[in-house]
Amino acid sequence: MATCQKLLSCLFLQLIVILMVSNLSNAQGLKLGYYHKTCPNAESIIQKATYRVISRAPTLAAPLLRLHFHDCFVRGCDGSVLLNSTKNNLAEKAAVPNLSLRGFNVIDSIKAEVEEACPGVVSCADVVALVARDSVSMIHGPYWEVPLGRRDGRVSIMNQVFAELPAPLANITTLRQMFAAKGLNMKDLAVLSGGHTIGTSHCNGFTNRLYNFTGRGDTDPTLDPNYIVKLRQKCKPGDTKTLVEMDPGSFKTFDEAYFTLVAKRRGLFQSDAALLDDPETKAYVFLQATTHGSTFAKDFAESMVKMGRARVLTGNQGEIRKHCAFVN
Ligand code: HEM
Ligand SMILES: *[C@@H]1O[C@H](CO)[C@@H](O)[C@H](O)[C@H]1NC(C)=O
Ligand SMILES: *[C@@H]1O[C@H](CO)[C@@H](O)[C@H](O)[C@H]1NC(C)=O
Ligand SMILES: *[C@@H]1O[C@H](CO)[C@@H](O)[C@H](O)[C@H]1NC(C)=O
Ligand SMILES: CC(=O)N[C@H]1CO[C@H](CO)[C@@H](O)[C@@H]1O
User: Which fold would CATH assign to domain 42-164?
Assistant: First the structure.
């Protein structure tokens, strides 16, 4: 700044520096091996702990992947999904989609293990990102390096879930907007929807398509009529309890079968079926369906890294929570 001669150009330079610094302290601030010096065993502790959990209960891989998605889509990947409600605040957990979120206790206990090794160093948001990666890779899914250095937010607001997280009845326009808001494009939408190759859904996520689609006792014309018959056997109207496998037969294995299902008009949610309403997502679905998922594993790894950068807190923003359910 000593070379600044005119006040205006000085201010201009400072502005550029400030912009660069704030840019660095955002998504770009994440780094591979971020805890290399401060907590060298962090990633291996988390991997071993996740392995222990998944080998005992393979069906937990799905909710643990989904937690990272929900964390990143509401606010950003800042651990806000993990915070408990307080006397004065209803947190994200209190929103209706929470009813089906699972795995909080797994994250809390893995975080406790990490805290024991390196107190106050590793964020809950990073734990969630690593556990999602490790869960997927342990059920035959791809492995990817996770850029780290996320910090934990102090805010979690129930109503933000409805605004930022797509509902199962979202159409392609809404999906495009909500993904774009997180820096994700149509390819990412198609790829990440492939996360529905694992896990289960409660009936009420899709029963509208089976019984009373437009309020005239009709069914969703975009859903395979033979599949409707099968789904009706599992889900009666108003059922909010029964769980249905989203990728029947291989719901515990991370494979490309999701795209075969969607191509056959057997995607469970309207948001799955909506992938056929846009030329780019449709082309992706058919490409994976007809080539046995030739590029799905690689694409999924890439899109997960991209999703993991959504509005992260870095540098001195936020905090490193001690317990994932509470701000410090
Ligand atoms: C595109 C917008 C999306 C919508 C509308 C959506 C909606 C849903 C719904 C309604 C469920 C069922 C929850 C239940 O009733 O138990 C579900 C489950 C699931 N979702 Fe998504 N999802 C979307 C994207 C994603 C993404 C991007 C991922 C991860 C990359 C993902 C991963 C999962 C997993 C793994 C499950 C199964 C959870 C379990 O077994 O407990 N979803 N999703
Ligand atoms: C946080 O809230 C959940 C229910 O939302 C509860 O099961 C859990 O025990 C709470 N965590 C702690 C540490 O109090
Ligand atoms: C998509 O859904 C949004 C929100 O429900 C709605 O406003 C919009 O009209 C829908 N778009 C189409 C093309 O159906
Ligand atoms: C279908 O929905 C309409 C409008 O919400 C309602 O009036 C009707 O009773 C429903 N029919 C059945 C069979 O549930
Ligand atoms: C665990 C938890 O917070 N559950 C809440 C989920 O959302 C419903 C309704 O929005 C609440 O009643 C639950 O307490």
Answer: Peroxidase; domain 1 (1.10.520)
Tokens of 254: 């991370």
Q: Which atom of ligand 3 is nearest to the CA of 172?
A: 1
Q: Which of 204, 209, 212 to mutate to test the pocket of ligand 4 (most atoms within 8 A of CB)?
A: 212
pLDDT in tens, 105-143: 999 999 999 999 999 999 999 999 999 999 999 999 999
d(CA 205, CA 270): 9
CATH superfamily of 172-307: Peroxidase, domain 2 (1.10.420.10)
Smallest CA separation from ligand 3 atom 14, residue: 171
Task: Give residue-wise pLDDT tens across range 136-165.
Answer: 999 999 999 999 999 999 999 999 999 999
| 247 among annotated binding-site residues | yes
